[in-house]
Every structure is written in structure tokens, then in C-alpha cells.
Design goal:
Blueprint lengths: L10 E2 L7 E4 L11 E4 L2 E7 L2 E8 L4 H11 L9 E7 L4 E6 L6 H6 L1 E3 L7 E3 L2 H5 L9 E2 H11 L4 H6 L3 E7 L2 E8 L2 H15 L7 E4 L5 H9 L4 E4 L5 H10 L2 E7 L2 E6 L4 E2 L12
Parallel strand pairs: 1-6, 4-7, 10-17, 13-14, 14-15
Antiparallel strand pairs: 2-3, 4-5, 6-7, 8-9, 11-12, 11-13, 15-16
Helix pairs in contact: 1-6, 6-7, 7-8
Protein name: Sulfur carrier protein FdhD
Function: Required for formate dehydrogenase (FDH) activity. Acts as a sulfur carrier protein that transfers sulfur from IscS to the molybdenum cofactor prior to its insertion into FDH.
Pfam families: FdhD-NarQ (PF02634)
Length: about 280
């Protein structure tokens, strides 16, 4: 078999599904109401006919989710390795086929870490050994830019407003929201964006990554692998997430709502150019 071209792209199915389901719950008065809940579906990954694991996802962008997951797990490092990613919802499975297999697959799959991601994420291989190879640009962030980005993001979170029970993640270039994904777990959303970046050749060095979820070790690792130096969340930070941000040089900003935020790492690279007026307590 001839070597695949370095410019080759895998053949992707187009198996997106509706992300919400109409239901009729009964309220505290015994009355039936119509509303929506977030879809949640199992999707089992088969890599060259070998079962790897099952993801729980809404199914909005399953091909990008699997593509980003493969990259973030370091199972696939070049697009040219992939022949196809085919999702079949009737069997609740996705068939990933490569041209020449995955070198060292048994060893990579033998080292598994269950993370603290919503619904529990799983990371394979010796991730910690690879972190020393990551180098992020030493960018600066303006406070005014953070506010502008947060304002631009208010137009998103559509599924959350309609049905709840989801996390959202976004890749931002200033106020331009390049990709916004909602899923049942933030690790799914970040993997979908990683797949989007990889497929379209988008670099992360001048981007900001936003998530509605906690900034855990998994989130910091995945965003750093995507080459994004700024991580912003409306939620909190875990101890290991902070330790890894310091090690990798990720600017870590959390509890970002309205005009409020907390810089946990990289404060020396944040320009405070739009500090809100302090509200003085009544005497």
C-alpha cells in the first residue's frame, strides 16, 4: 500500500443529531408542562476494529469530537494517518480506520487515567511525560479584551438556555467566536473544538479558550496541547489544574462573570486597563 499524502484528509461521515428532546414533565401542582432536555447518547469508538471506549455525547458534532479526542489522547498525531471516521447511530458506534495502524497502541491503552471531567473523562498514555514538550507563547491579555469576549459569549449557550444540563466551550480570537460547542461534558466539548482546529489548520497561539466548567488538570492539559495560552472559565479551579497551569505557562482566569474575574496564574501578563469602579460600603 502506498503512503498517504501528507495533505490527505480523512473521510468523515455527517451524522449530527438533534441536541435536545421534547418532554412533558409534571410540576409541583400536578400539571403537565412541555419542555426540553439535553440529549445524551453512547458512542463507542472502534479504532481499526478494536473497541477503545464509549463516550457519552449529545451527538451534535460526533466526527469532530472523535477526531479531537484521538489527537488529545496522542493516539493519532497526523491527519494523514487517518483513512476515515464513520459514525453509525443505529449501532451507537464510530469506526475509525487508519492506513497503517497505530504504533504502540497496546502500551498507550494500558495506561489509563479517569479524570474529574463531567461524566468522567478518560485519558490514555503517559500524559505527564509529554507535558515537558509543550511550549506556549508568552502572550498578554487586556482586561478590556476579557470583558469584550465575555460579552460576545452571551449570545451563545443556546442548548443550556433551552434544556440545561450541558457545558459549553469556545475558541475565541478577541470578540470573534471561532467555534462554540455544547455537550454533556466539558471534555467532549473541548475535544470537538480540538478536532475543528486540527481539521481546519487553526493555530492556538493567539487564541483564548473559554469553558463554563471547572478548570481541572484535564482541561489545562488539553488546552495546552491545542497550543492555546489563555484559559477562561465562569467556574472554579482545582489544585492540580493550577499546578499544571503554572508548569505549562497557561494564563488561568476563573470565576469570570459580568465584571468580576480571578486570575489564578499569569497575573503578570494581564493588563488591568478597565478596572471597574469600587462600590463603597455605606458608613
Amino acid at each position: 500500500m502506498s503512503e498517504p499524502s501528507v495533505t490527505a484528509y480523512p473521510h468523515l461521515s455527517n451524522a449530527s443529531l438533534d441536541t435536545t428532546i421534547c418532554v412533558q414533565p409534571v410540576d409541583e401542582y400536578g400539571q403537565t408542562r412541555e419542555g426540553y432536555i439535553s440529549a445524551e447518547r453512547p458512542l463507542t469508538i472502534y479504532l481499526d476494529k478494536r473497541e477503545i471506549l464509549t463516550l457519552m455525547t449529545m451527538g451534535s458534532q460526533p466526527e469532530l469530537l472523535v477526531l479531537g479526542w484521538l489527537r488529545n489522547q496522542n493516539l493519532i498525531t497526523e491527519l494523514a494517518q487517518l483513512k476515515a471516521i464513520q459514525v453509525d447511530w443505529e449501532t451507537e458506534s464510530v469506526a475509525v480506520t487508519t492506513f497503517q495502524g497505530v504504533e504502540g497502541l497496546d502500551e498507550k491503552l494500558g495506561r489509563k487515567t479517569v479524570t474529574t471531567g463531567c461524566g468522567q473523562g478518560t485519558m490514555f498514555g503517559n500524559l505527564m511525560d509529554r507535558l515537558d514538550q509543550l511550549q506556549l507563547p508568552a502572550v498578554t491579555v487586556q482586561q478590556s479584551q476579557l470583558y469584550d469576549t465575555l460579552h460576545a459569549l452571551t449570545e451563545y449557550n443556546e442548548i443550556y438556555r433551552r434544556a440545561g444540563a450541558v457545558h459549553g466551550c469556545a475558541l475565541c480570537a478577541g470578540t470573534d467566536i471561532l467555534s462554540f460547542v455544547e455537550d454533556v461534558g466539558r471534555h467532549n466539548a473541548v475535544d470537538s473544538i480540538a478536532g475543528y482546529m486540527w481539521l481546519h489548520g487553526i493555530s492556538g497561539g493567539d487564541k483564548l479558550f473559554y469553558t463554563t466548567g471547572r478548570l481541572t488538570s484535564e482541561m489545562v492539559i488539553k488546552v495546552a496541547q491545542m497550543g492555546v495560552p489563555v484559559l477562561l472559565s465562569r467556574s472554579g479551579v482545582t489544585e492540580m489544574g493550577l499546578e499544571l497551569a503554572k508548569k505549562l505557562g497557561v494564563i488561568l482566569i476563573a470565576r469570570a462573570k459580568g465584571r468580576h474575574f480571578l486570575v489564578y496564574n499569569g497575573v503578570e501578563r494581564v493588563v488591568f486597563d478597565a478596572m471597574p469602579r469600587r462600590v463603597e460600603a455605606d458608613a
